[in-house]
Backbone:
């Protein structure tokens, strides 16, 4: 005996038992129900507009485009921050002089990347010691970067939930956009 509360499913079962063709409506309902069960996993809420680059050429063109339009913030998920840093240097060298490039990590503090960035580091640090610069201090000192400069912030995923770091990133946005500077957040792939 068929249950009348499940009319479409009951009709489909009835047709299958009697070897009759299932109506288009019943078949559509079954297909629709099946595809409702197959869903995409939810996207990250921190980086909802992320792009997966499958080749270094794609990354190069996206990075250069971001620099051309003065994008103030770029987050890069990478398993190898050292090679990513070298690749960014090579990308920046193409066609012009390398802009001032500083890096920050929890062990070294603020440091110069490349030979030409030593003077910029000394100017930004003033009397402070590079190794004493913490995650929030690095973002505060980044305000002093010269135009077109970059700060590569290593292991950003370990600090971006800190209210001071969040505010520091927010504070850099407008001034970096106006002067062509960029904050590059380097994070692990699973972050």
Residues:
């Amino acid at each position: 005996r068929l249950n009348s509360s499940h009319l479409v499913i009951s009709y489909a079962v009835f047709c299958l038992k009697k070897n009759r063709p299932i109506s288009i409506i019943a078949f559509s309902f079954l297909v629709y129900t099946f595809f409702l069960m197959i869903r995409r996993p939810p996207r990250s809420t921190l980086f909802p507009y992320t792009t997966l680059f499958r080749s270094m050429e794609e990354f190069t063109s996206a990075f250069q485009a971001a620099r051309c339009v003065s994008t103030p913030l770029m987050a890069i998920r990478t398993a190898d921050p050292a090679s990513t840093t070298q690749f960014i240097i090579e990308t920046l060298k193409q066609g012009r002089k390398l802009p001032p490039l500083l890096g920050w990590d929890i062990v070294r503090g603020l440091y110069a990347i490349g030979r030409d960035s030593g003077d910029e580091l000394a100017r930004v640090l003033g009397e402070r010691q590079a190794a004493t610069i913490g995650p929030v201090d690095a973002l505060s000192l980044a305000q002093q970067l010269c135009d077109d400069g970059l700060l590569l912030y290593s292991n950003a995923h370990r600090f971006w939930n800190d209210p001071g770091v969040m505010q520091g990133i927010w504070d850099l946005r407008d001034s970096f956009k106006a002067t062509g500077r960029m904050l590059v957040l380097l994070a692990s792939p699973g972050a």
In short: Confidence is low (pLDDT under 50) at residues 41-50. Residues 163-179 form the longest helix (17 residues).
